[in-house]
Amino acid sequence: MSYSTIAMHNTSYQAHTTDLSEEQVWILAAQQDSRRFEPLYNRYYEAIFRFVHQRINDKHLSGDLTSEVFMKALSSIKSFNSQGIPFSSWLYRIARNILIDRFRRGKNERVVNVETSALAGMAEEAEVDGVDEVRMNRMLQCLENLPEDDMQLIEMRYFEKRSFKEIGEILGITENNAKVKTYRILDKMKNLMTAVK
Fold first, then answer.
1. How many angstroms separate the CA atoms of 69 and 88, rounded?
2. Which of 3, 4, 59, 181 pairs as cysteine with 109 (C-beta 3.0–4.6 A)?
3. DSSP H or E segment with residue 7
4. Architecture of domain 18-104 in CATH?
5. Which CATH number applies to 114-195: 1.20.140.160, 3.60.21.10, 3.40.190.290, 2.40.30.30?
6. Cα 176 from chain centroid?
7. Does the pTM exceed 0.90?
8. Domain ranges of the chain
9. What is the separation, in whole angstroms, between the first and last Cα of the chain?
10. What is the C-alpha to C-alpha distance for residues 197 and 190, in angstroms, rounded to an integer?
11. What's 83's DSSP letter?
12. pLDDT tens, 44-86?
């Protein structure tokens, strides 16, 4: 898959740490009465909007899609069962599925916002020696050619600074699997970067 834009932005992401007992009270209340969904909406709207906007780069459309995420969450709140997965991860899964569906239908081009320092961190973890402008450009080329699933892992880990645990929760895989897959992608990118002279 190719991506329409690789823009350089300095965007910091921080995962929400939530008091799960408080969150559970809100979830149970919303499951009993959908009008009591508001605290969950208020707590997570901004984070889900940023997640969507990071990939769509259209503020108005990002707002519409974020609303769609919360409408789907509200309509299926009664079937939500955390099983150790935070509510926020469930919302991110819904957002991810809405975005994937939209991209598959060709409604929008996928955008990847890249932070220069994140590229340097990726290069360091991939053990790429002598990171200069040429290697950074090669890394950008590698990113542009990654399959969507690989790009999501790289994006969440390096550009959104998510833990492997959170990535696993969002993608529905184990923390270890998220880590292994991410490092395999980095190895593949390193091989591509060093193969190109």
1. 12
2. 4
3. strand 5-8
4. Orthogonal Bundle (1.10)
5. 1.20.140.160
6. 17
7. no
8. 18-104, 114-195
9. 24
10. 13
11. T
12. 999 999 999 988 888 999 999 999 999 999 999 988 886 668 8
